[in-house]
Amino acid sequence: MANKKKVIVTGFEPFGEHAVNSSWVAVQELEQLGLGEAVDLHVCEVPVEYQAVQSLLPSLWKEHQPQLVVHVGVSGLATTVTLEQCGHNKGYKRLDNCSFCPVSQCCMEDGPDCVKSVLDMDVICKRVNDSNIGVTVSVSKDAGRYLCDYTYYTSLFLGQGRSAFVHVPPLGKPYSSQSLGRGLQAVVQEMLTLLEEEHSEKDDKHNEHCNHKH
C-alpha cells in the first residue's frame, strides 16, 4: 500500500515518583495492537529533558512526515484518559531529569502563548465514550507546564496543529496496561477518522467552488 498513513505515537521515560512511566507502557501496548493495515505506526520513548525534546521533535516530523503525531504522558492527577486541546508556551519552571529548565521558561521566545490542535478533542472524547470500550475519556485545556505541555506545544508548532496529547493515569489507578493500550488505540483511530472527515469536507467545499455555473 503506497498511501499508508504514517502515525507517530510517543511515551515518556520514568521521572520523579513515576519509576515506571505508564505512558510508555501504554504506547508499547498500542504498538502490539496496531492501528490497522492502513496505518504505519511508529513509536518512540521521549526523554524527560527539555533539550532532548528540542532536538528530537524536529527530526521526528522531518524524517517521517507523519499525518499525525500523538504524544502520551502520565499524570498522577488523572483518573481518566485525558485529551489535551492545546499546548502552552510559557511557565516552564520545573526542572527536568537533567536538573535543567529553559532560562526563558518558555518553549519558543516569540511563539504564540497557546497553540491548539486541529482536532476537536470534545468530538473525539464523545465518540470514544459512546463506544463503551471500558475506558473513560475526558478533555483538558491545561497540560501542566512540564515536559508534557512543552512537548505538545513544540509538536503543535512543528506540525501546524496536526498533533495531539493524551494524559494517562498511573498503572492500576484504575486501568491496566492492556486497558490503556486499548483506550489509546480507540482514541488514535477516532483522531484519524476525524482528520479524514475534515479533509473530505475541505475537498467537498473545494469542488462546490469549482463546479458552480455562471
UniProtKB/TrEMBL annotation:
Q: Name one GO molecular function term.
A: pyroglutamyl-peptidase activity
Q: Which InterPro entries match?
A: Peptidase_C15, Peptidase_C15-like, Peptidase_C15-like_sf, PGPEP1_Cys_AS
Q: Which GO terms describe its cellular component?
A: cytosol
Q: Carries keyword Protease?
A: yes
Q: Which CDD domains match?
A: Peptidase_C15
What this protein catalyses is: Release of an N-terminal pyroglutamyl group from a polypeptide, the second amino acid generally not being Pro
Q: What is its EC number?
A: 3.4.19.3
Tell me the keywords, alphabetical order: Cytoplasm, Hydrolase, Protease, Thiol protease
The keyword Magnesium is annotated on this UniProt entry: no
Q: What class of enzyme is it?
A: hydrolase
Instruction: Quote the catalytic residue positions.
Output: 148
For the biological process aspect of GO, one term held by this record is: proteolysis
What does the UniProt entry say about where the protein is found?
Cytoplasm
Major location (coarse): cytoplasm
Q: Which PANTHER family match?
A: PROTEASE FAMILY C15 PYROGLUTAMYL-PEPTIDASE I-RELATED, PYROGLUTAMYL-PEPTIDASE I
Q: Which family does it belong to?
A: Belongs to the peptidase C15 family.
Instruction: Say what the protein does.
Output: Removes 5-oxoproline from various penultimate amino acid residues except L-proline.
How this chain assembles, per its entry, is: Monomer.
- Please give the name of this protein: Pyroglutamyl-peptidase I
> What organism is this sequence from?
Parambassis ranga (Indian glassy fish)
